[in-house]
Amino acid sequence: MPIIEVNLLEGRSPEAKERLILALTQAAIDAIGAPRASVRVILREMEPAHFAVGGVSIAAKAAEARAKIEEDWSDDN
Questions:
Q1: Model pTM?
Q2: Tally of domains in the chain
Q3: Do 40 and 65 belong together in one domain?
Q4: Are the beta carbons of 63 and 71 closer than 8 angstroms?
Q5: What is the span of the domain harbouring residue 69?
Q6: Which of the residues 2, 14, 35, 48 is marked catalytic?
């Protein structure tokens, strides 16, 4: 019984998550011949503040990007 665990940031639609689950299930079937009913998929969603790259959380990076856009916009106007 394959168990596939996926960690991803919050914010994807239920339809996108269903597509991911179906694609992962099919990949297990194709790759190892697993019976469809035996494939388990676990999606773990995390807040952007709970995931970091290079010591900076995704939430902080998004805030920096928003601030830069606002700064650039105000400089242009």
A1: 0.79
A2: 2
A3: no
A4: no
A5: 50-77
A6: 2
Q: How far is CA 63 from CA 8, 10, 37, 57, 72, in A?
A: 19, 16, 42, 10, 14
Taking only the tens place, the pLDDT of each residue in 12-24 is 999 999 999 999 9
Shared domain for 40 and 58, answered yes or no, is: no
Q: According to the model, what pLDDT value does residue 6 have?
A: 98
Q: What is the pLDDT of residues 36-50, one digit of tens each?
A: 999 999 999 999 999
CATH number of the domain where residue 25 is located: 3.30.429.10
Query: What is the token pair recorded at 62?
Result: 């998004």
Query: Distance between alpha carbon 18 and the CA centroid of its chain, in Å?
Result: 13
- Known catalytic residue: 35? no
